[in-house]
Amino acid sequence: MAERKPDGYLEGRPLHPESLMMSYGYKPELSEGAIKCPIFQTSTFVFRTAEEGKAFFELAYGLRRRGPNEPMGLIYSRLNNPDLEVLEDRLTLWDEAEAAAVFASGMAAISTTLLTFVRPGDVVLHSEPVYGGTDFFLKHILPEFGVRVIGFRAGTPPTEVETRLQQMGLADKLAFILIETPANPTNALVDIAAYAALAARLSREDRRVLTAVDNTFLGPLWQQPLRHGADLVLYSATKYIGGHSDLIAGVCLGRRELLDHIKVFRTILGTMAGPHTGWLLLRSLETLKLRMTAQMKSAGHVAKFLAEHPKVAHVHYLGHLATDDPEYAIYQRQCSAAGGMISFELHGGEAEAFRMLNALRLFHLAVSLGGTESLAEHPASMTHADVDPEERIELGISPAMVRISIGVEHPEDLIADLAQALERV
Ligand SMILES: *Cc1c(COP(=O)(O)O)cnc(C)c1O
Q1: Exposure winner among 12, 97, 107, 129, fewest CB in 10 A?
Q2: Is 195 considered catalytic here?
Q3: Is 13 contained in some domain?
Q4: What is its EC number (predicted)?
Q5: Pocket of ligand 1, candidates 236, 403, 405: which has the most ligand atoms within 8 Å of its Cβ, to mutate?
Q6: What is the pTM assigned to this prediction?
Q7: Domain containing 102 — which CATH number?
Q8: Number of structural domains, the chain?
């Protein structure tokens, strides 16, 4: 049958990702002509012949190299499934990646990726603060496997981190750099290109230091880490990519050679997402740009309102960075918009923050972010309750801080809700 659907190009011109989110990687003729990719709710797939089954397994277990146009045959849903494969193809478009892997959660993506590339005796460098689950994995689980984990504050120049590693005699043990930028909940930025350059300086021919970026806060619309030298991009797809607060999933993207390796670990650890989650994410991707654009624009209005409010002491919002702030240059280089996450401090402490949170009517009081509904939470006692109190203050997470995730409601309504809640403080 003739290929009618675009393969990513129209008359030789590449189509934009949002134009491909309804069609790319899916062939209706393989599914009774269904315009939408059905849910392939199946655990196993029938081989046409024993020879075909043998060929599929040779590829799945890396017993021989894949031919140039040889597809990965369908075997068993822990290895691959059409919903995940179509989704992975579509996800590569936003980050301009060669390959993608979808996982059962953001934490499954992060832990499986680190377990793929890190071995006992290795050193892992990571920015701070990082997401609580990532922080726990780095500080409590990896050390049990003999991995040295060293954190650096977002904003630290890589040369300073390099000197510290050399003084500790660990520079030749570095295997992996994990960056989360912007950092949660302060929106502090880490210079991706500068840390990728550090990874390159400390790489040897037989041991390449990999750089991975958790791009959950701004990606895939407003930041593409692979363009700035990162090797891998990680997501909690639970947040903006899923976008409706109704699923848990994760993604890793990068070069095919790295993703093939990660997928072997995903297959054996069993950390892949199920077909229903894959199907929900395919639906979510169709509106990803619309949602993230509306959220980004509303956040600008909300941040302006907060910055001008007398009861608000300080607003952490990427759109308000001063031009002489060292973070401003990083923002200009690696981000294309400020996104939909804002945190701010009230005058006062926890009591004032709680009074405001309890008075909100349209914003829901819940952790997580990136969904269609706006959310508000208290980092010091909720998402970052586990961080050492002294460290929490050093990181700028004060008891008076409130973090909000802007949804797709009308910004006037969001501002009205914040105004009436601030009134009660
Ligand atoms: C939520 C989140 C994670 C963890 O993702 P899950 O889908 O909850 O496992 C990792 N990193 C960041 C930045 C997050 O916000």
Answers
A1: 12
A2: no
A3: no
A4: 4.4.1.2
A5: 236
A6: 0.95
A7: 3.40.640.10
A8: 2
Do 232 and 301 fall within a single domain? no
CATH of residue 367's domain is: 3.90.1150.10
Cβ–ligand 1 distance for 239 under 6 Å, the answer yes
Q: Which of 285, 313, 331 is the last residue of a domain?
A: 285
In DSSP terms, 180 is beta-bridged to 214
**Contact predicate 244/366, CB 8 Å:** no
Looking from the CA of residue 180, the nearest atom of ligand 1 is 13
Q: 194: CA distance to ligand 1 center in Å?
A: 24
pLDDT at 372 over 60: yes
Give per-residue pLDDT as tens, 20-42: 999 999 999 999 999 999 999 99
Q: Which atom of ligand 1 is nearest to the CA of 184?
A: 13
**Ligand 1 pocket check for 242: Cβ under 6 Å:** no
Please name the residues in contact with 243: beta carbons below 8 A apart, sequence gap of 6 or more.
284, 287, 288, 291, 370, 371, 372
Residues 314 and 328 in one domain: yes
Active site residue 131: yes
Nearest one of 200, 129, 186 to 158, comparing CA atoms: 200
Question: Which of 24, 26, 131, 331 does the annotation list as catalytic?
Answer: 131
Instruction: Provide the residue range defining the domain that includes 260.
Output: 77-285
Quick one: which atom of ligand 1 is closest to the CA of 250? 7
Gap from CA of 66 to ligand 1 centroid (Å): 33
**Helix (H), strand (E) at residue 102:** strand 99-103
Please tell me which residue in 90, 195, 239, 240 is annotated as part of the active site: 239
The CA radius of gyration of the chain, in Å to the nearest whole number, is 22
Q: Are residues 268 and 314 in the same domain?
A: no
Only one residue has tokens 């991975």, namely 212
Residue 404 pairs with which residues in a beta bridge? 342, 376
Confidence of residue 4 (pLDDT cuts 50, 70, 90): very low
The pLDDT of residue 5 is: 47
